């Protein structure tokens, strides 16, 4: 409250005399919601938004980041005039920029070219590392996917990307003879990866000389070819009790081996059998 600094919530604001203090709050690191992933995946976009807002607030010129594949909207521009200038249709320009209306704002950065995948990348690779200027549409098109398929493969809830982000561009499915390495992506954990390949967390840790359960995005994990355990895929109507009975084991043993905290199962889930 500028009219009464004594009522400002943050101590740093109350105790900073003769200066206008601005605190930008992006989210909370201990949030149970989407704060952490939003910050990790979209930090460049968020930072640029703050720079733009502060420049406008204090009345100084703001120059957006521009590349040869982008155009910065100026006074008098329309989608039609920009599209015509770069040999596009209005629909193509809107699709490139995920626009749902024809409204533009001065300083807005528009993509005017399809993304190009860096030289050396081939459609046969399983993962792709996001580079500057990439979009979901450009990456999906190169690898023969739809945007929805690419988002599903990577559990993405928005179209935002960050430079260095590792995207899965091929459905891993079940482990096969050609599966040797797995690249960790946002949201992964050792149990999830071990379950995908039908091995235990201990086997995965041992194969990669891991002493803790911590993983980092982009980390490459070696996947052992075989497991000492049989795997079972959960079907409709299955329960831990019915599966334990079928394989002559106990619910407790199944939960312990598969790191299950509850008895809830999902169709298609893979369980290791003691």
Structure description:
- It is built from 10 helices and 8 strands.
- It has a two-stranded antiparallel ribbon. The protein has a two-stranded antiparallel ribbon with strand order 3-4.
- It has 274 residues and is an alpha+beta fold.
- It is extended.
- Mean pLDDT is 75; it is low at 173-179.
- Helix 5 packs across helix 6.
- The chain has helices spanning 11-14, 35-58, 79-85, 90-96, 136-142, 147-153, 190-196, 201-207, 240-246, 251-257; strands at residues 70-72, 109-111, 127-129, 166-168, 181-183, 220-222, 230-233, 270-273.
- The protein folds into 5 domains: 1-63, no CATH class; 65-113, LysM domain (Membrane-bound Lytic Murein Transglycosylase D, Chain A, Roll); 127-168, Roll (Membrane-bound Lytic Murein Transglycosylase D, Chain A); 181-222, Membrane-bound Lytic Murein Transglycosylase D, Chain A; 230-273, Roll (Membrane-bound Lytic Murein Transglycosylase D, Chain A), CATH 3.10.350.
Outline? extended
Distance between the termini: 63 Å
Main sheet makeup: 2 strands, antiparallel
The residue ranges in which pLDDT falls below 50 over 5 or more consecutive positions are 173-179
Number of domains: 5
Series of secondary-structure elements, N-terminal to C-terminal: HHEHHEEHHEEHHEEHHE
Beta-strand content estimate = 5-15%
| Average residue-wise pLDDT | 75
> Major sheet: order of its strands?
1-2
Report the radius of gyration as a whole number of Å.
Answer: 25 Å
Please bin the fraction of helical residues: 25-40%
What structural category arises from helix and sheet content? alpha+beta
Total strands: the figure is 8
Number of helices: 10
